[in-house]
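Q: How would the structure tokens look for this protein?
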Amino acid sequence: MADEQNLPQDDNLSADAAHTAGEMADADGETTDTGAAADASASAQPEAAGSRAEAELADLKDKYLRLAAEFENYKRRTTKERIDLFKTANQELMVALLPVLDDFERARNATRDTTDADAVRESIDIIQTKLNKTLQQKGLTAMEAKGGAFDAELHEAITQIPAPSEDLKGKIVDEVEKGYYLGDKVIRHAKVVLGQ
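A: Here is the predicted structure in token form.
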């Protein structure tokens, strides 16, 4: 503390040194105040940086608005395509089923005046075979459930009855309604009767 009191006051000296360091002689021998020039350029830099930031912000806002508009157009377009797809999704299947419908009409006209039940039965069998073949070409496959093990993922148990034989205990005794796959997906579960 005593040392600090004995030291000469440097406040005036340091201010004078800073002032003289700020002044420099240029090529003509004139002194210029570089401190004032530095202060002027320092005040100009924030203004330039501010205008640059505003320009970047405006550019980013423009990009954002364009991207948002593009996304809205994309959503509108995909929604329209989806609606169109739903409207025409069954078109291919319907076109494939039209010949079967024509066969039903021809069979009905041909068997209208007949009393021969075998002729009616034969025409129905032919049409059913054609219908099954058409549906199989479109990916429809019937499940084979009778006599197999019950699987809750594939079958729907309607009732249980006493098993007619020991080997059918806990298995499917009868199939009330066929189940179907479309490709690998189950589109209708088979309704079955289980043996106890």
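Residues 140-196 form a domain with the Nucleotide Exchange Factor Grpe; Chain A, domain 2 fold (CATH 2.30.22.10).

The beta strands are 23-25, 31-33, 140-142, 155-161, 172-177, 180-182, 185-188, 190-195.

Upvote if useful.
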